Amino acid sequence: MNIFEIFCASKNEENSIKMASYMKNKFPFLGIPKPERARLSGDFLKQHKKDTAIDWEFIFKCYDMQEREYHYLALDYLMLLIKQLVPEDMSRIEKLITTNSWWDSTDSLDAVVGDMCLRYPKLKEIVIQKWIDSDNIWLKRVAIDFQLQYKEKTDVDILSKAILSNCNTDEFFINKAIGWSLREYSKTDKEWVRNFLKGNKLSTLSVREASKYL
Q1: Segment 74-88, tens digit of pLDDT
Q2: Residue-wise over 65-80: b if at least 16 C-beta within 10 A, else e?
Q3: pTM of the full predicted structure?
């Protein structure tokens, strides 16, 4: 059986209802919990670990399927081959961010975008700036949060720009992202975050999240 057949054969109706409900019924689920999904996809991912090129046809085939586990499989595969990504792939990553969008898939792509921007800093000017000004909340969210793992490598100028360009909103996922980005950076530079919070008006949610470690 191929990986799609393996996943399909492992469908659990009871779990699928619970998992879909947890995700606000945005997507149908096969009902495969994460540990089981990792076990089922283990051999497949191991076989592709040393691939020198990313199979985008496979990724988008996964994304064309309804059940959320196939989307997760695509993201696991992409993370496996993250070092094979090149700047020209950013348009494809943008398509992933804006397709079947919800916090779980978008947040998985934070690390992918973050890694690429470390390796290709020009992407911050070319792509991240465009996302900051986008009308799509998920592109905005990634533009705010792609530096979550950067610590001392955080570009505070682009972090400030991403936040201040998007803080005048009632959108939960944006305000949450702002708080999350500041909370993570506070682990590296508490004083900078304190001063940022004092100098700028942010939502109550953003401030609460940002202040967790201050």
Answers
A1: 999 999 999 999 999
A2: bebbbbbbbbbbbbeb
A3: 0.95
